[in-house]
Amino acid sequence: MSDSSLILDDGVLHCAISVPGRAGSLDGPVLAEVAATLAGDTSGIGAVLLHGGGASFCTGGDVSAFGSATDPQQLVGDLATSFHRFLLALVATDVPVVAAVTGWAAGAGMSTALAADVIVGGPGTRFRPAYPGIGFSPDGGMSWSLPRLIGVARARDVLLTDTVVEGEQAHAWGMLTRLVPDDEVRSTALAVAVALAAGPRGSHAAIKALLRDSDGRTLGEHLPAEAASIAACAASADGREGVRAFLERRPPVFG
User: Fold this and answer.
1) Looking at the 3D structure of the chain, how many domains does it have?
2) Any idea what DSSP says for residue 24?
3) Which of 68, 98, 223, 255 could tie 193 with a disulfide, CB 3.0–4.6 Å?
4) pLDDT of residue 22
5) Contact 44, 9 (CB under 8 A)
């Protein structure tokens, strides 16, 4: 992959989701490329790393384009549909997704960060819904993901009042899964992605599938799926290697 915004290195797919700049807006062509890549053969990808093209993660859509549109309803609807293909690809992929949330994650940038499996930020990280500020309602699944992360009552408050949630509070509420010093956000996220890429990919895929499906099942319905999944993992090459390594008291070599 030659595009500087989408690079595969040592099993980690690096994705700069916003245009270069201090607080860039979403980079539409990159989002489409990410969605297409994740919908194809991902056997060479062990982790996805999302980061901004500048100092901030992403400040959402290009508001200036909304203002100049002759038919804003059509434009924004089309952009949301395209954005949602990207979001669904992130959620549906078997590959773990890590977000390095530096600076601002606002609007669609916040929606994107909340869709990741591991969300790394610092005290200087800022989440803001931003949609009410321009008279819009959320897209990118924010009104679905935020209440599941922080609770319905808090989500109502944050979304309706367009509250800025700073890094430490975001971590306490579960919007960030890891809180590190601001200057270590990207390096920590990269280290997590590299470790995931070197890990048992079949196990990661199974874990993600179980987590996705658990929301629509009772415990009684979910337990057989867990039993089938762990049995399949036990028979896999990585499962056999993991058990051997444990018994031989050495680090496993997966893949």
Assistant:
1) 2
2) P
3) 98
4) 65
5) no
